[in-house]
Amino acid sequence: MSFVHMTRVFVYGTLKKGQPNYYRMFDSANGKAEFLSSARTTQTYPLVIAGQHNIPFLLNIPGKGQRVHGEIYKVDDQMLKFLDGFEGVPTMYQRTVVELEVVGERAGEGKVEEAFVYSTTAYQPEWPSLTNYESYDSHGDHGLEYATREARD
Ligand code: PCA
């Protein structure tokens, strides 16, 4: 096996397991991804659902909101490139570094790690006042179901 460079990415939105874009990380045409662990941010951030397509955004405002739950994956360079394009980096989201605490892993519980995250500073002025969530679910009680790319017009 050749040496493949892998990068850690923390996903908190539609890329999580069970969410509408999860399959994209496991489409081999996009590259490779491997689950590492569940985690939550060590800092609080506002995770809001915004815009006409009900898109989840982690606003890059540490100290506001809640500690956000998500999943850490390791991805190869091809997948990282795909995700950057898919997430509209750098206009819609920016890929930044976030500090995380591993949760739910017998061996790794409580361990602090860093990973990339798709967060944004490009938010509308009212977004920081929207309801914020600890854990994203497109089908949650909020009723703000994510509009998939295919469903948009
Ligand atoms: N996709 C990325 C950022 C928000 C989204 O829906 C993620 O799941 O982390």
Report on this structure:
- By secondary structure, the protein is mainly β.
- The protein has helices at 22-25, 77-86, and strands at residues 6-11, 33-41, 47-50, 55-59, 69-76, 94-103, 112-120.
- It has a five-stranded mixed barrel with strand order 1-5-2-6-7.
- It starts with 5 loop residues before the first strand and ends in a 33-residue tail after the last strand.
- Pyroglutamic acid is lined by residues 11-16, 56, 87, 118.
Poorly predicted runs of 5 or more residues: none
CATH superfamily: Gamma-glutamyl cyclotransferase-like
> What's the domain count?
1
Fraction in beta strands? 25-35%
CATH architecture: Roll
Order of helices and strands: EHEEEEHEE
Which small-molecule ligands are present, each listed once?
A: pyroglutamic acid
Number of strands: 7
Q: Quickly give the structural class.
A: mainly beta
What is the name of the CATH class?
Alpha Beta
Considering DSSP H and I runs of 4 or more, what fraction of the residues is helical?
under 10%
Mean pLDDT: 95
CATH topology: Hypothetical upf0131 protein ytfp
